[in-house]
Every structure is written in structure tokens, then in C-alpha cells.
Amino acid sequence: MNCFPQDINGMLRWLKRVSSKCNILFCQGAMNVRKALRLYNLLMMKRNESMRNIITEFSSISDNMDKMKKKSKTIDIAGGTTGAVGGMTAVLGIAFAPVTLGASLIATVIGAGMVASAGGIGAHAAKAKKEIVNRMTVEKLVYDYKANVVDLEHCLGFILGGMNEIQRHDIARLQRAGAQTDSVKMAHLSQFVLSNKINQNGGTSPAYTCGMSSERLLLAFANEMDLYFKGKDSQKLKKSSKSKFSGRVRLLAENLQEELHNLNRMWEIRCTGTIKANLVVKD
After folding, report:
1. Is the pTM of this model over 0.85?
2. What residue stretch is flagged as signal peptide (predicted)?
3. pLDDT tens-digit profile of 202-248?
4. DSSP letters along the chain, please?
5. Whole-number Cα distances in Å, 51 to 43, 60, 178, 257
């Protein structure tokens, strides 16, 4: 096979061009991930506390509903006694009830002139339940949390996908070819983050999602609201659904807390990895 100098020179120019393009793509990808990491850091600093507060609100709703359920049972016992035995027996029943009834209930009875009728106490309990939860309040919490978390999870999905692409390159070769120092640091950071994410997932491959673990949880919960409330325009829970709704809200809070923990965990890994990547490149 004849090999002419012009053919060799042409192929060498091709190799140089292709290698340079690979270098450019590597550096551009690394810079995109770096910019996304900066955005993730800013979002976490700005929104972390707000998301924790909303999760606390969800938990409080469930806690208050459970407490009211216990109070309602005690009140029903006291109210039934009124009809059978008399007003004074009902008052004594309240006085010796568990401390969980609180001073407010006793104060209500005293303020009503020691009138402990079954109807009166039942009405007070119903009013308290109405104040604790309504559909508009819950839907606003869902909307507020979604507004905070969707961008964060989308940003993290972009970062992990970008890091996965970066680590496919031969870092040592690109470094010898003159890749930017910041790009090389990002490559080492990518290796550190992805290896820690794999370990965190128990040895399974990391999932490169485009955001939405928490969003899916919130959408699923929002789609179930009609099961618990009397109608789309109704603020009142169905009487038969109160216990189920309390448990569902608690499950949502726990799941969102787990997802937020994961977001914070990736934030911590990123910070640790940045320090280690800087040390590796310096060495």
C-alpha cells in the first residue's frame, strides 16, 4: 500500500482537529456542570429552610388531626354521660380527663357557665377540627413546596447527567493535551460525587433523573385530594376520611423529608469533593 506524505499530513491534521474538538467538548461540558453546581448551591442556601418549614407544617397538620381525634373520643364520652347522669358528672369527667385535653377545653366549659351539654361540647370539637385543616391550606403547602423543589431537583439531574458524561473521558490524556485546570478539577469532582452516590445507593447504578422525585410525590398527593374532601370546591374533609387523610399527610411529610435529605446529602458530597479535587490537581 502506497502512503504519500500528503495523506499522512492530512490525517495528522484530522487527528489534531478531532482531538481538539474532544478537548473543547470536555471543557464545555465541565463548565456547564460547574455553572449548574453554582446554581444548585444558591438554590439550596435560599430554599432549604423554607422547604423544611413546609414539611414541618405537613407534620403539624397530621399531629393536630390525631390529637383532635383523641380529644373527640374523650368529649363524646363526657357528652354521653351528661344525658344519662347529669351536668355535674360531665364536668367531673372533664376535670379528671387526661392532661392532653389541655386547659382550653376546661376553660371553654367554665366560660359557658359550667353547661356541659353533649351538643355544646360536640360543636366545640367540630369547630376546632375545622380550624386545623382545610383543603385550601393543604393545597397551598403543596404548591409552595413544589415551587421550591422542582428547580432544585431538575438542576441536580442536570449536574449528575453532566458528571456522568465528563467521567467517560480519558482525563489524563485530556490533561496532557492542555485541558483547562478547572475542567480537570470538575472531572475529579465528578468521579468523587458519582462514586459516593453509588455507595449511597447500596452499590447500584446512580439514577440520573431530571428532577422530580418530590414533584411526583406532590402530584400524586394532589390527585388524591378528592378522595378525602367532599368535593372540588369543598373545604371540608369527609367524616369517614379523616384518619386516612392524617396518615396520608404524614406519609407525604416523611417522603419529602427523605428527598430533602438526599438533596442535602448531594450538597455535602459536592463540597467535600471540591476540596479533594483541588488537592488532586495541585499534586
Report:
1. no
2. none
3. 544 444 444 458 999 999 999 999 899 887 667 888 888 889 999 99
4. ----HHHHHHHHHHHHHHHHHHHHHHHHHHHHHHHHHHHHHHHHHHHHHHHHHHHHHHHHHHHHHHHHHHHHHHHHHHHHHHHHT-HHHHHHHHHTS-GGGHHHHHHHHHHTTS---HHHHHHHHHHHHHHH--HHHHHHHHHHHHHHHHHHHHHHHHHHHHHHHHTTS-HHHHHHTT--HHHHHHHHHHHHHHHHHHHHTTTSPPP---S-HHHHHHHHHHHTHHHHBSSTT--SBPGGGHHHHHHHHHHHHHHHHHHHHHHHHHHHHHHHHHHHHHHHHH-
5. 11, 14, 43, 9
Place of cell 414533584: 215
In this predicted model, which residue has the larger pLDDT, 70 or 167? 167
pLDDT in tens, 24-41: 778 888 889 999 999 999
